[in-house]
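Deliverable D4.2, example record:
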Amino acid sequence: MITSDFKDYFTSITSEEQAKIIDTLLSLSNKTISLSDNIDSQQINCPHCKSLKIRANGKLKGVQRYLCNSCSKNFSETTGKFWYCIKKKDAISKYLYCLLSGYSIRKSAKETGISIQTSFDWRHKLLSSFSSVEVAEFEGIVESDDLVFPYSEKGSKNLDRPAKKRGKSNSKRGMGDDKVSVIATCDRSGNKDFKVVSKGRISKKDIDKALEGKLDKTVILCTDSHRSYSAFAKSQDVDHRKFNASKGQKAVNKVYHVQNVNNMDSRLRKFMDPFNGVATKYLQNYLNWFLVLEKIKNSTNRVKTLTAIAFASNSVWWEYKDIALNNMFIRT
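Output generated by the structure prediction step:
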């Protein structure tokens, strides 16, 4: 699925404009970046150790290969990216069309001529690529809030609990290990972020992990009255304005409030509804996908924005593999 804003945009444009978006994405996936280009600006690095100390090492079947001077490992320009190890590369164009059109995994598989499992794998490899998208540093008035999703082992065949029956909820009242907390943050300049942090209630440590190094330009932090936010703001020496919704507190001077982050939370909920629940190990992928679509929606050049993000990472293959093999959500 896809947010209605971008889905409506993509399905409303002409087939030529749709093809241009897809071709732009695919042209980047096949692009050869020479070492004469600015390596730092292109973010070319070793997918094994992330070092920028690399050099050209010939070509194999027209694909540029590199050698890392730090770890001495070889890699190519396609290593670790979304299309790495994909056999039916000729179907990627059609699959991208299905993804951008908001098709389900099953419908995308049918339209593309691939199996449902392959359609699932391709979606999550692509979503994993968005983990490399960096959120800009927050500035000015920043709003933060925590929201809760059910802990889910959807799709797992090795459950450490009785299987949930359809139509019944195993969720307990209150916060516990059957819930997963997500910290949502935004500022008035349009910077947004969602971070899956832990099972159960959030702690100051969780907020530290979600907002570490992102509040240096923050003037005022607006949150609810959760004590962990108070402890975090004090440790960061940030001016903190907190609100108690249960007491009807909504805003101060019509400027300090948490209405923007609450609105963002609401849009995320609507975005997540069609998925009928996602496995917790994939939750961050969907949050990243939502943020990418928000970025595209607010961009003056949707094609360049989507292109720059979708195929930027050269560690997608390993990230997806790690997530797929990790059946449990681990609190860190």
